[in-house]
Amino acid sequence: MKASVLAEKTGGILHGADTEILCVCSFEDIKAGALVPLLVKDLPEGIFESPAAAFLVKTGTETVSGKTFISADDPEMALVAALNAIYPVQRKSGIHPKAHVAESAVIGENVFIDAFAYIGENVRIGNNCVIRANVTIADGVVMGDDCDIHPNVSIYSGSKLGSRVLLLSGAVIGADGFGFYQRGGKNVKIPHVGGVLLGDDVEIGANSCVDRGKFSDTVIGEGTKIDNQCMVGHNCVLGKGCVMAGQAALAGSTTLGDYVIMGARSGAADHLNICSKTMLAGQCGVISDIDKPGIYAGFPHTSRKGWLREVLLLRGLPDTIKRIEEIERKLNNDGH
């Protein structure tokens, strides 16, 4: 692809020769014909002597004579556009002969259903969806347009997906919640009859689980992104634009506001409310409501500054103990 064409597709401005761009590379591993995004301040020496075809930079960045640059006001979004242009998704359509599609299912236009996928009774799938191999979509599931369901995903009955939902391999949507009554030394399972609602532009990572609600639905808000190996318990409600990093978990009936960020392996106990624009550091454990936006860390959770103070005090504890012991020895010696 010519640099001039790529500049147009990314909304950028071309500076220098109209080179041929073949791929995108980081500046640690530059190949001939590569577009190299320069999104950091500290660049390695000799980078402009590399075989790169062009460099992507922020508008106003000083360029080098004899080299090709594409400048953009928002180079990160320009990079996304460049990746989509250089590596376009190859879409298929049609139903593989080894797929099972119930006669009552309603399939939209330009849909691809791969081998060994199972589409149950009264399922509705919107236009331009991709259902990959070994996907199970149970009876009555509703799916919007432009969804991409990767291999080995399971979507249980009672689930409703908006448009442009992405489910990565092994994700499970709508399995029973973890709820029991303890009677007579036994754990008696509580039937869960709610469903799961996934808003538009939701992404669920590989091997992550979103459990169905007990009576009402578990809800994942528009634009929320959930990483691999995460857990969302029954009846949780996540607002729009939330982010859960790997192995983050929410116990049942906890509510997140909008734009909440959960770091890797962070978690929240059940029946809590966490307000919008809250950030939980990695491994943070929330045990009570958070009603003030900010950055929280530690277990039990506290402000990030408070947690750092606690860590410093704990790490200094051995020295403090030694000093106390020295004082005690001196006092004992003086007493004798």
From TrEMBL:
Its EC number is 2.3.1.191. One of its GO terms (molecular function) is N-acyltransferase activity. Gene3D superfamilies: Hexapeptide repeat proteins (2.160.10.10), MurE/MurF, N-terminal domain (3.40.1390.10). One of its GO terms (cellular component) is membrane. The gene is lpxD. This is UDP-3-O-acylglucosamine N-acyltransferase. It is an enzyme of class 2 (transferase). InterPro entries: Hexapep, LpxD, Trimer_LpxA-like_sf.
